[in-house]
Amino acid sequence: MPFVKMQKQKYPIRLWGLVGYPGAGKSTFATQMQSPLVVVDADQRFSEVFPLVNGDVYRVSDIAHENTDPHAISKNLDANMPGLNAQGTIVIDSLTAILAPRVVAAIVAKERGEVKSLGAAFKEKAMAMRELQDAVTKWGCAALWIFHLHDARDDKGTAQTKATVSALELVRLTRSINMQLQVVQADSSDASRGKRGIKVTWCRSGRDGMTLWDDSGKWIGMPEKIEAACYDGLSQTEMERKELSAPETFASPEVAMAWGVEMGAFESETHARNAYEKIKREQNPQNARHMASLWSADVQRRLGEKQNGGEA
Predict the structure, then answer these.
(1) How far is CA 243 from the centre of its chain?
(2) Beta bridge partners of 202
(3) Are 33 and 198 within 8 A, CB to CB?
(4) Nearest to residue 198, comparing CAs of 189, 185, 179, 187?
(5) Do both 43 and 188 map to the same domain?
(6) Does 302 lie in the same domain as 222?
(7) Contact of 227 with 235, CB cutoff 8 Å
(8) Cα(110)–Cα(207) distance, rounded to whole angstroms?
(9) In the chain, pLDDT over 70 holds for what percent of residues?
(10) Which residues form the domain of 48?
């Protein structure tokens, strides 16, 4: 088989993460991704929105539990993706439904004394995440990883909005995506009140931080709108500089940790998380910008020590 000549693409491939509260419209957003769609229908709700897709839709399996089993997902993708020539988008809807039962099982196993530590109990969850990422990313097509938000409280009782996927899994996921999106709702004082929007919380090689509002009610044209806002007008050099430079702020601690791992300062996600928490604990940053500065300095220090043959 002859080599295939590479063609320059206008935008990076869509390797996106999408988070939002249940019912916020994440699955509806997925219908606007490039078709054909290959859906890991872990929530068993994609049938409610698939008529909105302008193209073909394939469910990874019609057997419900196979949509939450990474090994079954991998086998089904291996068997059927070659027939699609790796075109379109793989939609994981949702990562929450795949990992949450494994978290519960690990906690129960620890409480029953079936394992000595939560670390050992979570091993199966970590392997599930790794197998799922490998199964999806190997095809080189677009991917949309969906997971949920929920309301929680910290140790001091302060209300927080948290992802239903653990920080460690989010770090791992960040290494497989190039953009993180969040569904948001305009508040009553906003000129766009009543509308839903997509906030680009992080973009690896383009602009981020902006919110784009949906005028259609069904996210029509939103993926294209996001790409234009993030990438239009940027040269290849500017995009590469954005990808390699130390950000002034990070969209989340998970993005910060993933950046440190990608830069080569840490051998694992756990190593990065421990270092990040140590900085927070010992240096008590005053705000997100201060934390980003401390984190970037620590990453650069570790890289310098590695280059000089030392231990970080």
Answers:
(1) 16
(2) 180
(3) no
(4) 185
(5) yes
(6) no
(7) no
(8) 43
(9) 91
(10) 15-234
Both 64 and 184 in a single domain?
A: yes
User: How many structural domains comprise the chain?
Assistant: 2
Please tell me whether residues 46 and 146 are part of one structural domain.
yes
Q: What's the whole-number average pLDDT of the chain? A: 89
CATH of the domain at 132: 3.40.50
Q: Which of 234, 258, 287 is the last residue of a domain?
A: 234
Q: What is the pLDDT of residue 157?
A: 61
Nearest one of 203, 234, 170 to 15, comparing CA atoms: 203
The residues near 297 (Cβ < 8 Å, ≥ 6 apart) are none
Question: Other CB atoms closer than 10 Å to residue 200's CB: what's the count?
Answer: 21
Residues 24 and 166 in one domain: yes
* Per-residue model confidence (pLDDT) at position 312: 46
Q: What share of the chain is helix, strand, coil (3-state, %, to 5)?
A: 45, 15, 40
One-letter identity of residue 61: S
Q: Could you tell me which of 196, 202, 186 has the C-alpha nearest to residue 219?
A: 196
Rounded CA-CA distance 70/152 in Å is 28
Asked if residue 46 belongs to a domain, the reply is: yes
Q: Is residue 239 part of a domain?
A: no
DSSP secondary structure letters along 228-262: HHHHTT--HHHHHHHHHSPPSS-SSHHHHHHHHHH
Total-model pTM:
0.86
Q: Which amino acid is at 92?
A: I
d(CA 229, CA 11): 11
- Copy the structure tokens of residue 77: 């993708």
Over residues 165-193, mean pLDDT: 84
Structure tokens at 200: 């680009």
- Give the whole-number percent of the chain exceeding pLDDT 90: 63
Q: How, if at all, do strands 142-153 and 89-93 pair?
A: parallel
Q: What is the predicted pLDDT for the residue at 119?
A: 76
β-strands 142-153, 211-213 pairing: unpaired
**CB atoms inside a 10 Å sphere around CB 207:** 16
pLDDT single digits (tens) 101-160: 998 888 888 888 888 877 777 888 889 999 999 999 999 999 999 999 876 655 666 655
